[in-house]
Amino acid sequence: MTAVTALCLLIGSGAALSAALGLLRLPDLLTRMHAAVKPQAVGLLLILAAVAVNFPGPGVFTTVLMVALLQIVTVPVAAHMVGRAAYRTGRFQPERLYVDELAEDLQDG
User: Fold this and answer.
1) Nearest Cα residue to 7 out of 52, 37, 47, 63
2) Residue 23's closest CA among 14, 15, 34?
3) Sequence spans of domains, the chain
4) Cα–Cα distance between 59 and 80 in angstroms, integer?
5) Which DSSP string do the residues of 35-96 spell out, in sequence order?
6) DSSP 1-44
7) Which end of the chain is more exposed for a tag (fewer CB within 10 A), N or C?
């Protein structure tokens, strides 16, 4: 159990560290947002798994499950809303986009 906990904590904290480095190193808001959302969510889920393994019990498991579900549901929605707001206010670099489907949709509507 200790080895599983340690492994989950190490990989989870490594994922969170990679998210922090992505925020510092990537050039524009959209790529930073992607780097912050994906590894951060995986890192948190692994750390929650370590907590559930290290402290077995129905109360801990229920709390960890609720936090994990809320994280899985809210993080993509929040990232989507930040991305849309950045796009609509022009806080992105259009030359970095390979395909810009939203521009076509905005022109049609």
Assistant:
1) 47
2) 34
3) 2-108
4) 32
5) HHHHHHHHHHHHHHHHHHHHS-SHHHHHHHHHHHHHHHHHHHHHHHHHHHHHHHHT-S-GGG
6) -HHHHHHHHHHHHHHHHHHHHHHHH-SSHHHHHHHHHHHHHHHH
7) C
